[in-house]
Please model this.
Amino acid sequence: MTDDSPTPGDGGTSQGDATLSPPPRAAPHYAPQNFGDRIAFGFVKLLRFFADAFFARRYGHRAVVLETVAAVPGMVAGSLQHLRALRRMESDQGWIRTLLDEAENERMHLMTFIQVARPTQFERLLILVAQGIFYNLFFLLYLLSARTAHRFVGYLEEEAVYSYTEYLAGVDDGTYRNVAAPRIAIDYWKLLPDARLRDVIVAVRADEAHHRDVNHEFASALAPSR
Ligand SMILES: [Fe+2]
Ligand SMILES: [Fe+2]
Model:
């Protein structure tokens, strides 16, 4: 099963327990505190608008394309924090490992969802262009203001939590078939052998909530000028 197109009326193998899904927007939100925070928040909302317009409710495809973007910041921030630690000859306080782990975790999200939805040729082109632009923009933003860059990722992750909550609700109400969890996901999250897509989305959403908290925390730990 590689198509995540909505299948109205097809309950598939959904466990159908909607009570297990928290309502969308239940996730904590960090209120913007300064100009940089507001810029980060506004830019994420703009990206959300385009994602909604392009993917609508094709959540499998949305996950694949957006995870290719989500896996970039951790690697950029990790390498820049690594260089900073070398220049200053001081401890990174564990930031580098945390950021590189985030990048790897996002790449595993991608490797998982690629088993659920195969990107179209156009989406592959979009991924290529988006990576070229986003990698360089995020790199520059991090040089200008690491604080705003981490805040931006925090807001991006708030949206990721929201999107996966919607995806989960769609699985629970039978809009999307609750297919068997890909092997790679069962191994990575140590899920039960008979785990389903629902279990995978719950695990991924927990990861995104963790990235959200870590990035907001990192942003708050940095002085506003940085
Ligand atoms: Fe992710
Ligand atoms: Fe994430």
